[in-house]
Amino acid sequence: MAQEEQVTIKELFSLDETAAKEYLSQFTYPWEALSGIHDLILKLGAALPEELYEKREEDIWIARSAKVFDSAYIHGACIIGENTEVRQGAFIRGDALVGNNCVVGNSAELKNVIIFNNCEVPHYNYVGDSILGFHAHMGAGSITSNIKADRTNIIVKGNEKSYETGRRKIGAILGDWVEVGCNAVLNPGTIVGKHSMIYPTSCVRGIIPSDTIVKNTGERVKKSEKN
């Protein structure tokens, strides 16, 4: 599969694993969806069943089966899905759609994100202006860097094609089952294809094809070639 095809929503995600399915289906590329997350949450929240979700404060809906520790801070607009755990000291700054069976861990920070079901950001993570796919996992201390030092618009760069996004802020887009190692940095506009793995302490940018291992030397190998 050509690398440029792996930046589309269709190629990156199983849309049945998010309440944002209908919304995301409107777009070709995931960064196109980032500007509408706030309004999406308000629309979804107003239709949530009261027997499953409690409206805690203005524009904040939390599943009754979710576990939210008292020391967590949550600002709207926000939806926390069923059986999700928001641990001690988590900082949800707003515009966060968090799916079912997720973990938002101690001292993790979320801002303007869509988190698919079964996703984990469990320890000291920053995730901003990003979309994390089904069963994506960020190791302790790994972060998404969402703005360039010169504050110019972000270009998503592949080997053969680049994409003008028109946005100053894009963190990372992680496809389904992506594994990010501890203390890795995902630079602005990083796209990681399904089932790929980022080694700990790596500094990553651009488009990572599916089923790829990115080593902390920057070397990229297909999973089938790792031995």
Question: What does it look like?
Answer:
There is one protein chain. Helices cover 8% and strands 34% of the residues. It has 227 residues and is mostly beta strands. It has one domain (3-225): Hexapeptide repeat proteins (UDP N-Acetylglucosamine Acyltransferase, domain 1, 3 Solenoid), CATH 2.160.10.10. The longest helix has 10 residues, at 37-46. The two termini are 22 Å apart. The mean pLDDT is 94.
Architecture blueprint of SSEs:
Blueprint: H1 9-12, H2 21-24, H3 37-46, E1 53-57, E2 60-63, E3 67-68, E4 73-74, E5 78-80, E6 85-86, E7 91-92, E8 96-98, E9 103-106, E10 109-115, E11 120-123, E12 126-132, E13 137-138, E14 143-144, E15 155-157, E16 162-164, E17 172-174, E18 179-180, E19 185-186, E20 190-192, E21 197-198, E22 203-204, E23 207-208, E24 212-214, E25 220-222
Parallel strand pairs: 2-5, 3-6, 4-7, 5-8, 6-9, 7-10, 8-10, 9-11, 10-12, 12-17, 13-18, 14-19, 17-20, 18-21, 19-22, 20-23, 21-24
Antiparallel strand pairs: 1-2, 15-16, 24-25
